[in-house]
Amino acid sequence: MTEPPIVTLARAYNFAAARHVRQRRKGEAAEPYVNHLAEVAELVALATGGEDPEVVIAAVLHDTVEDTETTPDELRRAFGARVAALVAEVTDDKSLPKQTRNDLQVEHAAHASRGAQIIKIADKTSNLRALLATPPVGWDEARRRTYLAWARAVVDRCRSADAWLAACFDEAAAALESSLELAPSAA
Ligand code: ZN
User: Fold this and answer.
1) How far is 63 from 136, CA to CA, in rounded Å?
2) 16, 24, 78, 116: which could join 89 in a potential S-S bond, CB 3.0 to 4.6 Å?
3) CA of 183 to the centre of ligand 1 (A)
4) Helix 81-89 and helix 53-60: axis angle, to 10°?
């Protein structure tokens, strides 16, 4: 018996919403974290035209292992081996220092599966949009610039995974960059 993908997708949304229930986005507006997951999943679904439901399901779940008590094994049992593998590919090892994790993301981006690359580009696009719309309290201009440069370094190594999505990222990056140029402290 194979479950229809739309059913798995609905289960994934409910699972992720429950796991991230107490988490908020870092920005001033402190949106519920599930808004980020919905945005990433939509970008992935649009980029793939719905042809690969497991990538969309993995997009919904992409932060569950990194940010919540969820284990890879739990994802494997509930959503299958490929979804769990895709999430594993986009999960940082939190036992490593932040800078090492960031360097590894850049290094791994080129070798990730196409599905994982698409999730990565969508994730970074969502994060840059959030940085522009509602920057986190305490993130000065330099910190936002550093994040932008790092996001570009990651996406530059996997942008061939999807041209449309890479263009979405470029648009978000350009918008953030021009807002930083207009920032008073840039003068
Ligand atoms: Zn994310």
Assistant:
1) 19
2) 116
3) 26
4) 60
- Structural domains present in the chain: 5-182 (1.10.3210.10)
CA distance 41 to 57: 7
Residue 27 pLDDT grade (very low, low, confident, very high; cuts 50, 70, 90):
confident
Distances (CA, A) of 65 to 2, 49, 85, 105, 140: 25, 26, 11, 16, 29
Q: How far is the CA of 32 from the centre of ligand 1 (A)?
A: 13
What share of the chain in percent tops pLDDT 70?
97
Q: Which one from 31, 67, 156, 177 is the annotated catalytic residue?
A: 67
Contacts of 73 (CB under 8 A, 6+ apart): 84
Q: What's the gap in Å between 181 CA and the centre of ligand 1? A: 26
Q: What is the dihedral of CA 2, 4, 9, 10, to 10 degrees?
A: -110
- The catalytic residue among 31, 42, 66, 103 is 66
- Report d(CA 52, CA 36) in Å as an integer: 20
Report the alpha-carbon distance of residue 61 to residue 56 in Å, rounded.
Answer: 9
Neighbours of 186 (CB within 10 A): 10
Taken as a whole, the chain contains a residue count of: 187
What pLDDT is recorded for position 73?
98
